[in-house]
């Protein structure tokens, strides 16, 4: 539990900033309270989706207003069960992290009136009603998290049609997806290529935008939207943020001129391994192209806040040292500050890729290698920020791996089926690309 939140625990027990400041749109066009929330449902009983209702109409809808009213009444919305479950077990839920980030100015809270009022409330000088009145005055969300469809040129090993249109053919061959299911996934997933979202008043008035994938750099319509944002009088207060597979660059003019009109441009590069390991995990990614594109971003955009953002899984936890050493070399090569270039990372919870699904002996082997990698990094003269990130990564991933045992013979059989099946379809072999992983998993003879 993040002890910082203790300072902010004076708010009503079910309070969350997200209903007032944030909205998310997922890859198939569903409107959600945030990335961990469930899809909003309209009064008609139909799920709120951009294919059925435009974004501005939904924001002004009775359903959205009723959703906010529940939090004003300190009630629990049924769309937010993941947070309530964590809260009920004294964990650090997403809503609590958001409050901590906001008050620490890590979520761009410091420039807003609501931040000042909350600061006064926690100091005992501002009544809660003043905070609530200011929240009630916010008609549209400032912070917008958009997955602009599932259009993607990669079929990453751990992904699927839910996030990549390129995955549909492999899904069909591997699991027998029907033609009708594939057609529906394609139609739903390509909504952002030419969508009224890019003409939305709510979007135009946003303050912070986070675009993920699919692959957002393939959505040309959003670059025209950026040009509109860049023409706003307050463009220098806008914050852009991306997750990208580093395969595709924005148009040259956007890269050279548009982004620097904003306050900052955060770019998280989805790099799970380098060289051939990148190609295998982020199939059919080309490492030379990805590395060149990352260098173009960090040498062209002046307000860049870049970070390497691997998804930690059974496929790359044995390569922590290799990945950190490469990232550190990029930082040194271009003499980048911690703000300009950082290292993050996140867990994969999928049943076949999460390290919690390893058996006891396999977990011990992974732990031994991770600790050995950490010792290697400690003797490698990493920049301090990278070393700090490496220490935290190894500690967190070992704790995460050991915290729960989800292994079963069925899970192992399904993982083996998936790995062997994808190897056959893609004419590859885990043993060739990730031999250490193969040795521990025992997928192919060693």
Give the tags.
446 residues, alpha/beta, 8-stranded mixed sheet, two-stranded parallel sheet, 20 helices, 10 strands, globular
Please explain how this structure is put together.
- The two termini are 42 Å apart.
- The chain is an alpha/beta fold.
- The chain is globular.
- The longest helix has 20 residues.
- The model has no long low-confidence stretch (mean pLDDT 92).
- Among the domains are: 130 residues, no CATH class; 163 residues, no CATH class.
- Helix 11 links the parallel strand 4 and strand 5.
- The protein has 20 helices and 10 strands.
User: β content, as a range?
Assistant: 5-15%
> Helical proportion?
40-55%
Unreliable residue runs: none
Biggest sheet features: 8 strands, mixed
Computed over alpha carbons, the radius of gyration is 22 Å
Topology of this structure?
Blueprint: H1 18-21, E1 22-25, E2 31-32, H2 55-59, H3 62-72, H4 81-88, H5 94-103, H6 113-122, H7 128-136, E3 143-146, H8 168-175, H9 179-189, H10 201-204, E4 208-211, H11 221-230, E5 239-244, H12 252-258, E6 264-269, H13 276-281, H14 287-300, E7 304-308, E8 311-312, H15 320-333, E9 341-343, E10 346-347, H16 360-378, H17 384-403, H18 409-426, H19 430-433, H20 435-441
Parallel strand pairs: 1-3, 3-4, 4-5, 5-6, 6-7, 7-9, 8-10
Antiparallel strand pairs: 1-2
Compose a concise summary of this entry:
With 446 residues, this protein is an alpha/beta fold.
